[in-house]
Amino acid sequence: MPLWFFPALIGAFAIVSLVAGIWLLLHLPAVIELFSRGNDLVRGRARRTASPKAVWIALILFNIGWIACILIYSFAIGGDAGPLTNAAAGS
User: Fold this and answer.
1) What is the per-residue pLDDT for 89?
2) Would the pTM count as exceeding 0.85?
């Protein structure tokens, strides 16, 4: 694998997590409606903009993104990725 593979992979997962996080922030009424079990969280007057399925998908993508970034970073920084990368692989 070329040297740029792991940073590119981290960048791709970071973008997935960032986009899902922004989507969740823009659809907060739907997130609140999904998790409100009592009177602790009260939904505002805004109309519901997203289905519960879409909220769950965004939450899963958000968590997969940041967890994958941490795992790839720890794999690369721990020295385990050294034998897999080839500095002479070209750009």
Assistant:
1) 57
2) no
